[in-house]
Here is the input.
Amino acid sequence: MAHTPLSPVPSPTPRSIIGTSRRKVDATAKVTGAVRFADDLALPRMLHCKLLRSRLPHAKIVRVDTSKAEAHAGVVAVMTGEALPIPFGILPVSQDEHVLARGVVRFVGDPVAAVAALDEETAAEACDLIEVEYEPLPAITSIEDGIANRTPLIHDYGDDGNVHKQVALEFGNVDQAMANAELVREDVFFYEGNTHLPMEQHAALAEWSPDGTLTLWSSTQTPHYVHRALAKVLEMDPAHVRVIATPNGGAFGGKSDPFGHEIVVAALSRATGRPVKICLTREEVFYCHRGRHPVLMRVKTGVNRDGSIVAMDFTSFLDGGAYGSYGVASTYYTGALQTVTYQVPAYRFRGARVFTNKPPCGPKRGHGTPQPRFALEVQLDKIAEELSLDPAEMRLRTLQPANSVTANWLHIGSMGLGSCIRAAVRGSGWREKFRKLPFGRGVGLACSSYISGAGLPIYWNNMPHSGVQLRLDRSGGVAVFCGSTDIGQGSDSVLAYCVAEVLGIDPLDIRVVSGDTGITPVDLGSYSSRVTMMTGNAAIQAASRARALLADAVAEKTGIPRERLTFAGRRVFDAEHPDRGASFAEASQWAEAMYGTIGTTGSYTPPRSPGRYKGAGVGPSPAYSYSCAVAEVEVDPDSGIVRVPKVWIAHDIGQAINRMLALGQVEGSVYMGLGEALMEEMTYRDAQRHVVHHHPSMLEYKSPTTLEMCDVETYLIEEPDAEGPFGAKEVGQGPLLPIPPAVANAVYDAVGVRVDEVPCSPHKVLKALKDKMKGKPGGGRYGPAGVPAYAFPEPARVLTPAEGGTGREMDGRTHSEVGGPVAGAGGPPQRENTAASPDPHHPSTATRRKGSR
Amino acid sequence: MLRLPRFTYLEPQTLAEAVRMRDEAGSDAAFVAGGTDLYPNMKRRQQTPSTVIALGALSELHAITGTPRDGMTVGAAVTLTALTRHPVIAERYPAVAHAADVVSTPLLRNMGTIGGNLLLDTRCNYYDQSYEWRKAIDFCMKKDGAVCWVAPSSPRCWAVQSSDGVPVAVALGAEVTLLSVRGERRIPASALYNNDGIAYLTKAPDELLVAYHLPPRDGWRATYHKLRRRGSFDFPVLGVAARVEMNADHTVRSARIVLGGVASYPMEIAEASRAIVGQRLDETTIGAAADAAYRPAKPMDNTDFTLAWRKDMVRVYVRRALEELAGE
Here is the structure.
């Protein structure tokens, strides 16, 4: 795929590595099959674990009888919820999960019991021998259902009945501004849930040592948080827990919660004294989920005739599934980033997340932001048409400026959206195509933005978000230690590139040790597009400190003035006389002789955000990436089938670290966005059918294959950001966001109907076309009719920066009262709350170890 | 991952041995050729034969013989890939080759056979699920349960005919040979299928499909149009096979239009054929045939996509199939 650099900014110093295309440090191992994923691991005397999962969507557990399973030949241990009373969850405010159900099950797939046996088949057979007596409870199946019914309560905590989380915020005076708008549009949109579908199914292996220490290998994106959950639930000294994140065969947010299966193998290893492994089936991966929330949205936007926004009133309802997961953060995220692309001087956001008896939703690539972005970008397309404006031109006129603070108090640094729009418009031939292609063909444009790392950690602390240690050795090699987790995005490579660039050596001279909580300094995890931003900066700091030590030694040994020393080509030399100097290995040896063992550290903490209101913790980021996509579609008017032959996408990345890897991330995002736009649906049967997942398999959960993938033309916009490592911003998630709205807008351009829903299924397009032909009122549109009547609390009022606000609520509440941040994958942190109330119902059995060993 | 249950695996060396083994193994046995249908079903415990009799070593089942003038015979164990690439089949029976070529993925076509394709188990969103999933809805009547979840008040199973090869075989008037210890019989392909999701085949369980007989290539032409979500590997949610024979004056002498994916059997729409026989294929007659096919087609909630849309597509796909044949 072609890449056209549009506004290259010359580097301050020549760089040999950053910005080039090069092999990932683990590429050879990946393509030769040498990488050992979690399921490839085996230890002597290892047992295999299987989970018995709930077959009902909502029920009390009356009795669990494990006696037949325990008597089954080859079974070593059987465990139920009674053994593990302490709850856990990724957010301190949502410690609502148990490893195995205690007294109640909340969705089909909720783990109830675990078996460790000599082999996997035996464990599965034993699960079938466990007798569970349930007392069924009515199931909550939808957003509307959860809002209308306060009973049965799925959880005994939450903001309002089955409403898990409510948010109501107002920045400026929205009603007053709206009253002065020249055009006000109100639209309702729905974005169906979908899941990550990583190729690798989750797997974990636990080894309890006789010393009383625990090692867990797991396909996780967040070993640090898994470490904390293990210590909490198993009541262990955290110093005796070690979590090793194995290379992930895809994750996309689906492996960023601590999971019951990770904890249960640890508990079973402790109980049996033997290593215990679990590898989930594909069906179980669907039940782990934590994917895209289904979100129903109402957007009311007031604009002037030139398309500039004067006020926006955004309401979102999220179908959260059965547990909290990242949901509090997800809720805020459906309202946080509307303001960072175009100027929104007055903004109101209300959001509610509803518990339902389905697998829990959480963060999937773009976490909580693709849904509102779809709504916003489709509505802007409608507004542009009403005002007879070109949608690209209209957006260009209303951009949020660089180095500004938004109405909801997000600090924007670099802002390359204008360059993105111009690049995508030029590359796609937008002006020759928009409203000019024959019936059945069309183009659509949409933009987006995403965070380059959440500004706050998930649990409240004032320590760095990422740490790096370097160790230089006498051979000229360098070891980099960092807690980050390579989920395929190339974070190990990024560490090597940053260190190699600063020290003037080759990335393959560097050994990267990552994702091991027993060895590496903490990095919070591979989520919120934070890794390059945070580990990159930490690595640069550590490498710069090492470079200073080596420069001292070389300057003293050779007499070359220190300020003239250059690090490049595995040498340290005099910039004015390049032949004078030393090899990097010699320089390392001299430094070691001078200072002793050479080890340095670096760390990174994001800058403090100006927002001080409750909820201000979600949305701030060190930097925002921007994207603009143009999609071209072909719509068959007889069937409504939409095909996307090509997408042009420009992404403001600040600075590419590895150009090829960055292009791959953009194309991967386009691919995932295309699946959401056209077909992916995480849907369930009705209550009579036990709210089972429609199709938890890779054949019937429809996701595009490479043959359905469109052509992609990518333009990397490189306008360095002052906060980014070498100016870099995120690329892993943002480019997904514009794809669904660009496709929807293109469908309108092609056949003149609006599908205000994701996915844009053929029956929806065809229905809209038929209704339009019949002249039905509202014909030409397919989408939700409205949102449920729900009484949100009065919004907390915050003056905007333009109004001279302070970033705090207007009612004078103090910072401590509003609790500071609230937390998430980017969420605002909350202080740990371990006092979750115990479940009233207890199954009658606990961990039992079988027979004599 | 899902694993196969334990079973006895037999490898007969002759056809006679194969049917004898089947007879001796009793009702709890199954033949397997490519295994692309049976083994996934066994992993999901939809079928749990204790004896599996493999047909791979039977060379008689791997041959393609005959001529287009006299008709051709395809051995039941010929893979879909081999069928697709056979030069005479590809040139003279393009609808047969095409229907084989649009089955699943290259990997599965390399393993899957025409015999297996013609006998493909009926499919359903409530049936093609793992054991644990099916347990969560108390199973369905096709396996282990009492209810048809597609239509809970229905006394019958509504699993859907999902083979691409079957509507083509029926539309062509092809025949199949069945072999058992009781002897051999040759029947029209159309007589092989029942409109019942469970008893979807008329053949006795111990009868082995050994050969697929294509009719002489004498003036008719045929096509197959497949609707599915992803061209890369999905089962059909609708298949339209159409065969027409023309008179010298460009009127239709005979026609057969058969739908897959809308019932538990390949549904022949005689009324659609009547709408075009004796007529020229033009917009009006094709439209009448498409309407005739639309009316009886009754997609149920057992595949991908919504019911109403799938029914709408019957009209569109029948029209397109006939337009293609008219344009040749």
